[in-house]
Design a protein that fits this description.
It comes from Gordonia pseudamarae. By secondary structure, the chain is an all-alpha fold. It contains 3 helices and no strands. Helices cover 70% and strands 0% of the residues. Helix 1 runs parallel beside helix 3. The N and C termini lie far apart (76 Å). The model has no long low-confidence stretch (mean pLDDT 93).
């Protein structure tokens, strides 16, 4: 009976998912700014809020699964990228919510 084989292929975090979340959050912020005090600001809120946060959650889930691998290599920049994405998410949610609230308040 042989020893169980262990896959020693190095894996890292799913950085592409983090990039997608950052792009969605940035797009939501831009939509919120462009359509300030219009109902379309709600679209920016949706992009930067539930959609981008959902992708960040998927990133966290997949990253946790990858951490169980025999060889997990995390680049030093990944935590800074994660923090930047979360700042973009917060900015997009605030801009979208405020823009939509101003539109509702003027109706």
């Amino acid at each position: 009976m042989g020893a169980p084989t262990t896959d020693l292929t190095p894996v890292g975090p799913p950085a592409a998912l983090l990039a997608v979340a950052g792009t969605l959050a940035a797009a939501g912020t831009v939509v919120g700014v462009l359509f300030w005090d219009h109902w379309q600001a709600l679209i920016g809120w949706l992009l930067a809020g539930p959609v981008a946060i959902g992708v960040v959650a998927l990133f966290s889930s997949r990253d946790t699964l990858r951490r169980t691998s025999a060889v997990y290599l995390r680049p030093g920049w990944i935590m800074a990228a994660y923090a930047a994405v979360m700042v973009l998410v917060a900015a997009g949610v605030i801009v979208g919510a405020c823009g939509f609230a101003i539109w509702v308040g003027r109706r």
